[in-house]
């Protein structure tokens, strides 16, 4: 019989509804029976005991809120009767002990990857075209139009719509109702084109709205982010367009590249428009140099690489009340498996670590790492409060509607993606990953700003859990979507790669699902599986300007 309710941690005083619960019915959990005093939708919570105003609400074994009204046992936990509240945290002297999971079945497993001169191994092979300033965005669009179709990089599996049929019907006198009910979706088909460069996965154009007009810190950070992308293991080389007078100067870019790779040797072409004879000549030179770069990138071939060469970013977006009990802990087990195999994993979104800071501080490998985590968390929180906001304002309307009513509830579930291994390093945006093991990366909770930062830090694949659904992807790091519930996995099957809803239904354990996700990573890394976000051309890229973004 399917379990209808769940207490996540033995110390919790709220219970999760796995099914619709109706007022007046009784549900049993272990030896206790609870009378449901109001309708409670799946993913939401009800009180295990009576609460008075000021009482602490505990979930995932940590404080996630406080009661602001009297709540009877069996009543729903809502935004009206519970407000955000989280535990304080400090540096504590203790030695964290970790028991790695068994990874014997993957010890000899390899993936077919692209070796780079600096020792990194990519899971894809991209060429980048980058503007140092927003003034060059139009030129990137011209280059895209000239190169992509001609070289065979048109997306063949994206959505196609027959707008011509609407035009024909409109001109023939069709009514609005006729037009709204007319079928216009065309079946997916191969474009019939062959890539000129079969060993190059694509040309990625990273448009943005920065590079000038902001602070010098913004320019420095943008150049550091671009350096992270250019030195990325999934990138073969880049064409960089500069206007010539912007804050984000090419010398800043080269300084940041050298910080990440002192012996940088990838093909890199930097062109300055203000030094060109004309825009036409400028673009012609950029296109020709890009084409020559692609010929060099095409010479690379996949070769076997150990799983220790993987760098996997961990992200969530459009989370729901099941995310923290299915998709996120499953990804957490995957993270533990990767760490045990010698790989690197990166947990981001600092606003979504609110309430679990003490646990993460205690897991840091040394005092300096713990101190840096505390420093970055407190500085971020302070900036948010100074701007008239705060981490308590992080949950979105969709999060709240689906049961994540306080930031601490959302965060305690989101942090499960990081598994249980020791934290070996804490990185500020957009610093690179340099250590094997679990890394923390300071990014906002904004999905695309965070995934952009994960790739900039070196993540070669991103695991993205979702309960509500989102098409988000990344320009250079293939992004795998893991659904927290089976309803989402079925309804949005065109964007979901793995269904973790089977954990909720009892068909799978967290451990089995984590192993399935690892095997999907291996297939993706070797080029044997193409994530849905890649198929749909979801090449998102949004730099974080270091203002307050939750």
What's the overall geometry? Answer: globular
Content-based structural category: alpha/beta
Q: What's the N-to-C terminus distance?
A: 41 Å
Question: Which parts are unreliable, with pLDDT below 50 for 5 consecutive residues or more?
Answer: none
Write a structural description.
There is one protein chain. The chain is of the alpha/beta class. The chain is built from 16 helices and 24 strands. The protein has helices spanning 137-147, 163-171, 176-181, 216-230, 250-260, 279-297, 327-340, 357-363, 367-386, 397-401, 407-414, 447-457, 486-491, 501-505, 510-525, 532-535; strands at 5-6, 14-17, 26-29, 32-35, 45-47, 56-59, 62-67, 82-83, 110-115, 121-122, 126-131, 160-161, 185-186, 202-205, 235-242, 268-272, 303-306, 311-316, 344-347, 423-427, 437-441, 461-466, 479-483, 498-499. A 7-stranded parallel beta sheet has the order 20-21-19-18-22-23-24, with helices on both faces. β15 (235-242), α5 (250-260) and β16 form a beta-alpha-beta unit. 49% of the residues are buried.
Write a concise keyword list for the protein shown above:
about 550 residues; alpha/beta; seven-stranded parallel sheet; four-stranded parallel sheet; 16 helices; about 30% helix; about 20% strand
List the helices and strands and how they pair.
Blueprint: E1 5-6, E2 14-17, E3 26-29, E4 32-35, E5 45-47, E6 56-59, E7 62-67, E8 82-83, E9 110-115, E10 121-122, E11 126-131, H1 137-147, E12 160-161, H2 163-171, H3 176-181, E13 185-186, E14 202-205, H4 216-230, E15 235-242, H5 250-260, E16 268-272, H6 279-297, E17 303-306, E18 311-316, H7 327-340, E19 344-347, H8 357-363, H9 367-386, H10 397-401, H11 407-414, E20 423-427, E21 437-441, H12 447-457, E22 461-466, E23 479-483, H13 486-491, E24 498-499, H14 501-505, H15 510-525, H16 532-535
Parallel strand pairs: 11-14, 11-15, 15-16, 18-19, 18-22, 19-21, 20-21, 22-23, 23-24
Antiparallel strand pairs: 1-2, 2-5, 3-4, 6-7, 7-8, 9-10, 9-17, 12-13
Helix pairs in contact: 4-5, 4-12, 7-15, 8-9
